[in-house]
Design brief:
alpha+beta; 85 residues; 2 helices; four-stranded antiparallel beta sheet; 31% strand; single chain
Length: 85
Amino acid sequence: MPMFLIERQFSDVLELGGAVVAGVQRINADVGVNWVYSFLSADRKKTYCLYEAPSAEAIREAARRNGLPADSVIEVSQVRPEAFA
């Protein structure tokens, strides 16, 4: 499945709890996308999330349903340093 990097900018500090994450994952499953992991900026206002999804549009649809920004959605592939050793 294709992988996407999503940049999200929040106006307030991001606060996540178990119920919020469960809701996001439920909607993501309905749309057919899988949240792999995220990086959170030091000021807690920006995230960089790695997702598996059939398309960028599926990412945008899940973000819309979750009420989350999706400022940038970029299809990516994995490159690891040990592949060049």
